[in-house]
Design a protein that fits this description.
227 residues; alpha+beta; 7 helices; 5 strands; five-stranded antiparallel beta sheet; globular
């Protein structure tokens, strides 16, 4: 299973790029891929593209994170999935850098892409349709590579309990209690249960999720005490 989040980069683009290129995290930069740009000077190239835009906008770039469940994939496979994900999501219109980090307990991809297309000089338009599109691509690729996928609207059942499609507090607690990977489960639940209206604000999904994480941890503590 892979979870994706994204946020904007409004300042210090070079610093963000240097972070994801860290050789200690990317197997001596073997797990680095760039499209239509050169990683070492990508911030300059992104800026040159933005100069052609009629509306420069406030954002320098987008930072997408694709995190995989521990032990479910290899660095090479995760990198390949990340490349296909970025190519399809961005449609070959945006410069991007993809790196795969292997220094944590779970493998995860970082994608930093220009906020302005080098084809038509338009900005990425982030809305509910974009999020749904990115989720469909992500889930389809996971299935294709034999990774698990949590269906957002699927009925979740066990031998004693039936769950409603509509998320509830008890639904959250039972899901967390029976999860083998709590951090990924809570991120998925939060991204599925936050009301749709949040996608129409300037807040990204990642901000919403992390602001609500304390409440999720409280629910997990309760769920852990269940038999």
């Amino acid at each position: 299973m892979a979870i994706t989040t994204n946020h904007t980069i409004d300042t210090t683009l070079r610093k963000a790029i240097d972070y994801i290129l860290n050789p200690d995290k990317t197997d001596a930069k073997l797990l680095v891929h760039a499209y239509a740009c050169t990683p070492e000077i990508a911030d300059i190239e992104f800026d040159c593209t933005r100069e052609h835009a009629y509306n420069k906008g406030e954002h320098l770039a987008r930072h997408i994170i694709q995190a995989f469940s521990p032990g479910e994939t290899t660095p090479e496979q995760a990198h390949e999935i990340g490349k296909r994900f970025a190519d399809e999501l961005l449609g070959g219109k945006f410069e991007y850098i993809l790196t795969t980090h292997i220094d944590k307990g779970h493998i995860h991809n970082h994608i930093i892409c220009n906020d302005v297309s080098f084809v038509d000089y338009k900005h990425i338009h982030i809305n509910e349709k974009w999020y749904n599109h990115s989720r469909r691509i992500n889930d389809r690729l996971c299935k294709e590579y034999g990774l698990s996928v949590v269906e957002p609207n699927a009925e979740r059942k066990n031998k004693n309990t039936k769950y409603e499609n509509k998320p509830t507090c008890s639904h959250w607690m039972l899901s967390l209690h029976h999860s083998s990977s709590f951090p990924f489960s809570c991120m998925f639940i939060m991204s599925s249960c936050v009301p749709d209206k949040t996608t129409r604000t300037t807040r990204t999904w990642s901000c919403v999720i992390f602001r609500l994480m304390p409440a999720v941890f409280s629910l997990w503590a309760i769920a852990s005490s269940l038999p």
